[in-house]
């Protein structure tokens, strides 16, 4: 069920689109503000969000979080959102009065889709979805909000305490093994292990 649906409706105007690539874009988005305050959770960190949803084990159950938050996940063809041919859209979040939806690129592998969902949840938790401030953003861009969303995603999918405890269980941390346990990509896991100063072997 998760990630299996396909989106056929146009994105609502209150949308933050996250790209891979290096194209800087801006969007003129207009929509009524009704409901903005209603949908913005008082969450300051990924740890808060996990606590709110009672999640204390991995792999992190994004399905449960999204169901609790009444957010639907759609795997969709997002190529129409790309402004340039070499820009790949990895995800988007759309908040309207009728629905809360996160879109992931249906061409992406599962672990990448999971990171995209976590990244969009970062925008959902941390950033004001006010349509007049809405943006088309770079997932790997340098804007503060993109950096924050990526950090939130890493902390959500690979919580520090859980990851440290798991690493302590073995004398050698093999990236493919631990990445699979947390259901993340090897690349994302390596970045996280580096950030936390944990040693590993990537073979
Ligand atoms: Zn983003």
Give an overview of the whole structure.
With 203 residues, this protein is an alpha/beta fold. It folds into 2 domains: 143 residues, Arc Repressor Mutant, subunit A; 45 residues, no CATH class. Helices cover 38% and strands 14% of the residues. The chain is built from 8 helices and 5 strands. A 5-stranded mixed sheet has the order 2-4-3-1-5. Helix 2 crosses helix 5 and helix 4 crosses helix 5. The chain is globular. The structure holds zinc ion (ZN). Zinc ion binds next to strand 1, helix 4 and helix 5.
Query: Under the CATH scheme, which architecture of the largest domain would be assigned?
Result: Orthogonal Bundle
Helix tally equals 8
How many domains? The number is 2
Mean pLDDT comes to 78
**Which series of helices and strands comes N to C?**
EHHHEEEHEHHHH
Approximately how much helix is present in the residues?
25-40%
Uncertain segments are 1-14, 20-39, 132-138
| Name of the top-level CATH class of the largest domain | Mainly Alpha
Terminal-residue CA separation: 33 Å
Strand content: 5-15%
- Shape category: globular
Radius of gyration: 17 Å
Oligomerization: single chain
The biggest sheet amounts to: 5 strands, mixed
Widest β-sheet, arrangement of strands: 2-4-3-1-5
Q: If you consult CATH, what is the topology of the largest domain?
A: Arc Repressor Mutant, subunit A
The assigned structural class equals alpha/beta
| Tally of strands | 5
Bound molecules: zinc ion
């Amino acid at each position: 069920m998760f990630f299996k649906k396909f989106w056929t409706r146009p994105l609502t105007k209150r949308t933050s689109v996250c790209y891979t690539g290096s194209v800087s874009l801006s969007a003129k988005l207009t929509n009524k503000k009704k409901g903005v305050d209603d949908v913005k959770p008082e969450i300051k960190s990924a740890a808060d969000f996990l606590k709110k949803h009672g999640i204390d084990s991995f792999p992190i159950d994004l399905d449960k979080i999204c169901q609790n938050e009444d957010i639907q996940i759609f795997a969709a063809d997002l190529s129409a959102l790309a402004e340039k041919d070499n820009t790949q859209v990895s995800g988007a979040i759309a908040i309207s009065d009728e629905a809360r939806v996160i879109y992931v690129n249906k061409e992406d592998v599962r672990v990448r889709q999971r990171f995209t969902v976590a990244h969009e949840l970062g925008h959902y938790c941390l950033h004001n979805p006010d349509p007049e401030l809405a943006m088309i953003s770079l997932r790997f861009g340098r804007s503060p909000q993109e950096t924050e969303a990526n950090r939130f995603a890493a902390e959500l999918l690979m919580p520090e305490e859980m990851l440290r405890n798991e690493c302590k269980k073995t004398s050698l941390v093999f990236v493919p093994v631990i990445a699979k346990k947390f259901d993340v990509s090897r690349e994302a896991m390596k970045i996280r292990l580096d950030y936390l100063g944990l040693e590993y072997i990537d073979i």
